[in-house]
Structures are given as structure tokens and as C-alpha cells.
Design goal:
single chain, about 210 residues, mainly beta, Methylamine Dehydrogenase, Chain H, six-stranded antiparallel sheet
């Protein structure tokens, strides 16, 4: 398809949020767990097959429905800030997010497909074909993380082949968000996951025990 003019950021793109970093005893199990997001709405990190880490792994892209609209945000681990990347006003959430360059994402929003320049926050409509497939730029974690379910619906994150428990939670009872989709940071120091233990799905980071 022919190139289409970029869409400038909306008035809310670029806003910086400072959520209080809270350690949650309900999720703690022999390690430090930090709550990265804290808002009366749902937030989810982009995990699974294609977690989107920026700035050499110092930032993580996530989706949050703050103020009733699902948008892309980037969490900066250096100062615990959350910067809004998109200013989408519909009822959908960004999906199929793929990191195609160090500072460029493609994603779906409903039936539409977009490319996002994370530095300028300008969007460009794209063909749906451009957001298919695996991420072009990925960083493999140094240590593996997994997820298992024990009796009573309690979910546990485990690390390593010995399946050492790292964090656990019963959540709010609305599966599957007790603990879901753990992913390891590129430097292998953190496991990031989502949990609705506090009533809303929020993003947490658990420190991996040092060997």
C-alpha cells in the first residue's frame, strides 16, 4: 500500500505518570516484589512471545486502560515513571504489539494496524500484513521463568529447571489474573508479571534470587 502521512500525537500522548512503587505482601515469597502500576484500572505488560523492551532493557512497553481507554505506555525502571505513548480514544486495546526496530512498534487496534515511533509518538497507518509474525528485535533472557497452578487456584511463578518458587498469589478470584504471563528482563534480574491481587490487574516485578 502507498505510504500514508503520519498522525501526530494527541494531547495526552507524552504524559508522565508516577505511580507509587509498593511492595505487596500478598505476592511476596522469599524475594522483593515491586508493584509497578497502581491505578483504578487494568494494566498489562506485553509478555508471552514478544515482550517489548526498549532502551537496552531499561524500559518495558505495557497496555493500560487508564481513564477508560486502552493505550500503550512505557515503564522506565530507572525512575519508576510511566509515559503514555498513544492517545487512542476508542473502546479497544492495542494488540499484537511487535518491536520492529529499537524505537519502533507495530500493533493492531481493532480492525486497524499502526506503526508507532516511540521517540516522536507519531502513528502511521499500516497494512495488517506489517504487524504479523514474530518480533524482529528481541533480547533473550538469561534465565527462564514459568508458571504453574497449585491446589485452590493459587498461581506460582517458578524459575530455573529446579522450579524454585519466586512469587505466588490467589488473586481476586477472576482467573487468569492471579499471576499471569511472567517474562524475564533482558539482564536476567527481574521477572515481570500481571496480577489482580489488589482488585485490578496491575504490573509487578519480582527480583530473581542471585545464584
Amino acid at each position: 500500500m502507498p505510504d500514508v502521512a503520519a498522525i501526530p500525537p494527541g494531547p495526552h500522548a507524552g504524559r508522565v505518570w508516577h505511580d507509587p512503587a509498593i511492595s505487596s505482601p500478598a505476592l511476596k515469597r522469599g524475594c522483593t516484589v515491586r508493584q509497578l502500576t497502581n491505578y483504578r484500572g487494568h494494566s498489562h505488560h506485553l509478555a508471552g512471545l514478544m515482550p517489548c523492551w526498549l532502551a537496552g532493557g531499561r524500559q518495558l512497553v505495557l497496555v493500560s486502560d487508564r481513564e477508560g481507554c486502552g493505550n500503550l505506555f512505557v515503564y522506565d525502571f530507572s525512575d519508576a515513571s510511566l509515559t503514555q505513548l498513544t492517545d487512542l480514544r476508542g473502546s479497544k486495546r492495542p494488540a499484537a504489539v511487535v518491536l520492529v526496530a529499537p524505537d519502533r512498534l507495530t500493533f493492531r487496534y481493532g480492525a486497524e494496524a499502526y506503526e508507532l515511533d516511540c521517540a516522536s509518538m507519531w502513528l502511521r497507518p499500516r497494512s495488517a500484513k506489517t504487524v504479523r509474525g514474530r518480533a524482529k528485535y528481541t533480547v533473550r533472557a538469561k534465565r527462564a521463568a514459568g508458571e504453574t497452578i497449585t491446589a485452590g487456584g493459587r498461581r506460582v511463578i517458578w524459575v530455573g529447571p529446579e522450579r524454585t518458587p519466586l512469587a505466588e498469589s490467589e488473586g481476586s478470584g477472576r482467573a487468569p489474573f492471579a499471576i499471569t504471563a511472567p517474562c524475564v528482563s533482558p539482564d536476567g534480574r527481574l521477572v515481570v508479571f500481571a496480577s489482580d491481587a489488589g482488585g485490578y490487574a496491575q504490573v509487578y516485578a519480582a527480583e530473581l534470587p542471585r545464584k
